[in-house]
Amino acid sequence: MPRSPKKSNFPVSQIRRYLEPGPIVLVSSRWKDETNIMTMGWHTVMEFTPSLVGCIISEGNHSFDLIRGSGECVINLPTTTLTDIVVGIGNSSGAEIDKFQEFGLRPVSAKKVGAPLIGECHASFECRIHDDSLIDRYNFFILEVVHAHVATSPKHPETLHYTGNGAFMVSGKIISRRSRFEPDRL
Amino acid sequence: MPRSPKKSNFPVSQIRRYLEPGPIVLVSSRWKDETNIMTMGWHTVMEFTPSLVGCIISEGNHSFDLIRGSGECVINLPTTTLTDIVVGIGNSSGAEIDKFQEFGLRPVSAKKVGAPLIGECHASFECRIHDDSLIDRYNFFILEVVHAHVATSPKHPETLHYTGNGAFMVSGKIISRRSRFEPDRL
User: Fold this and answer.
1) Of chain A residues 18-47, which have a CB less than 8 A from chain B?
2) Which chain B residues are within 8 Å of A162, Cβ to Cβ?
């Protein structure tokens, strides 16, 4: 099984570093006596401070009720060591199985929310619902990241980016153009 | 200069193929006698049909007024052959320069909107504002893709994914897990 990387606290205003490139993520949730995990690919950073992330969580997902009911969840960033687990989680329902147990993942207590972090992921972002005004119309949740945990290495984790039809793009090399940026546009 | 790839029409319900992996995009707009281009990294697919994309366009951008005023724009997908142009566009203002002219890009007439496509990009998605209810509060536009143009090759373009601080992740290899998906979860 994949190991759980050592993590440190990370500034919530800088989580775009991990989410802006569009990785598939695992969303963990807990409400009453139920815990679940879902895969999510439809999300975007919306603001630095407060640290806002908008995302689609379909009402057809078992996680929808847990997240709406508790007002909380954790966005976890898996890497390619977890590829088959990511696919397995996306192709099963928490209405039928306990996904932490089924996939051998380690739940870790969060600092500020009731939902557990997934220990094996590279990063975990604890979230609370910030604005629910577009949930009924679009299943669109606006979340505030209230605490962030990021693995101390590697600096550039190998992430998965879904393209539909069962195919993922794996993150490639990093190139910098820092010297060509205006400081306030970085 | 980069060439303009040959494109064909593409089903608007399937544009997640290109936008879900999180590429930086170039948004072109036109209103009255002004045309502009901006870079954008904060966007997400929201629905297949209608084909909805949510995105943040800051009111501080010159493009904000053009897109809100016209109710339209085009989301263009650049590849790594355009890296320095993408950076240049993101570090200049359309209030001061004509970006098509400055960066030697070819404006191409759209089919359904007034804003021009960027010929050199791999794909162009013509959009109309679908819901403006979160623009005032979050600068969040919900766009409907009304027509899509995609280059006939390559099948997997090398895209740029911004991580902040002047650094881009370049798209890597494609891996398939299609056989492990339930058909209705692809």
Assistant:
1) 18, 20-23, 41-47
2) 20-21
Q: pTM here?
A: 0.97
Minimal C-alpha gap between A139 and chain B (Å): 9
User: Exposed, middle or buried: residue A80 (CB in 10 Å: 0-12, 13-18, 19+)?
Assistant: middle
B39 chain-A contacts, CB cut-off 8 A: none
pLDDT in tens, chain B (186 residues): 678 999 999 999 999 999 999 999 999 999 999 999 999 999 999 999 999 999 999 999 999 999 999 999 999 999 999 999 999 999 999 888 999 999 999 999 999 999 999 999 999 999 999 999 999 999 999 999 999 999 999 999 999 999 999 999 999 999 999 999 999 999
The burial of A112, by beta-carbon neighbours within 10 Å (0-12 exposed, 13-18 middle, 19 or more buried), is given as: exposed
A-chain CB neighbours of B140 within 8 Å are: 46, 54
Q: Of B68, B25, B45, which Cα lies nearest the Cα of B159?
A: B25
Nearest to A115 by CA among A49, A26, A22: A26
Contact A163 B17 (CB under 8 A): yes
Residues linked to residue B115 through DSSP beta bridges, in sequence order: none
Residue of chain B nearest A165, judged by CA positions: B186
Closest by Cα among A136, A138, A127 to A52: A127
